[in-house]
Design a protein that fits this description.
alpha+beta, 60s Ribosomal Protein L30, Chain: A, Phosphoribosyl-aminoimidazole Synthetase, Chain A, domain 2, seven-stranded mixed β-sheet, four-stranded mixed β-sheet, 10 helices, about 30% helix, globular
Length: about 375
Amino acid sequence: MNDAHDDPATHPRFAQIERVRRRSGRVRQTFIDMAHGGGGKAMRDLIDDLVVGAFGSLGLDAGEDQARVGLEVLAQHGDRLAFTTDAYVVTPLFFPGADIGKLAVNGTINDLAVSGARPYMLSCALVLEEGLAVDTLRRVLGSMAEAARAAGVSITTGDTKVVPRGKADGLFVTTTGIGVIPVGRAPRSDRLRPGDAVLVNGTLGDHAAAILVARGELRLDAEIPSDYAALHGMVDALFAVTDVHAMRDATRGGLAAVLNELALASEAGVVVDESALPVRPEVRGFCEILGLDPVHMANEGKLVAVVPGDAAPRALAAMRAHPLGRDAAIIGHVRERGPGVVTVRTGMGGERILDMLVGEALPRIC
């Protein structure tokens, strides 16, 4: 006998989606006002129309203050949980190739992925400034839903707050993620060993360049889109061919910050071959004009992987076989000498120390 829920019209999810459909279009204001954060009907309409309208099919239950998930479901995928949270304050909200919504979803997915985890669910907290265009919010939420659906993750709970005009910058987004780490995966910042190889999956500095273009601070003949991407699929491909000693996504502070953090945690030296660094000619050109270095520039779809030296060729092949790793490269190695120090081997055959910046070269980048 078929279960009653085999009939879509009787499934509880169908009833929830129908409620969302009936509530859609309730927000007729053009801009967010303080009533939308007051806990009354205006707030209910905002959540039902925009938030549930975007995330209802992704597992959001707007009738509860929390998401609930059976532990047995998580245990089917691994033996440990990964848990992370991040706030996104990028300006402008929209830039070539992406926006704050896609950035928030994929950025949190990547923070899970570099632990070896397969992302499972996200939460979303919104801080809205009075005066934000409703259409802007609708567009951002639609982008978040699109990114989550493409990555195969749920957006299951969240929160919405409204602050007075001038107390924020349009829209801030905080996403929290939960993932499950499969048995046997244990990348850690302190696992670098002499002889390990260092790889990146593509060109450096693309996201920072996209933001500069969107801010009008740079004019380029060729548009450089943000490299935003969810990297968990490529992480799976890497672990299919080798153990990965350490992994980090190179966001704020870029490659230089990641390598210094890994070197310090492992008390190991890292040497980078300057000629092996993958950088778009357009990005290299404007870095030279502005006095920037691509290794300090932010990325949103790049990871640094440290693998055993003898596994480097197959790790590189696995990266390049994935759409997000076509420009992957082996960029350096780990050594005993100079523990905690990262150096760059220059084209002249010498070495220079590669340190982290004291501050952020480009603020409000993510």
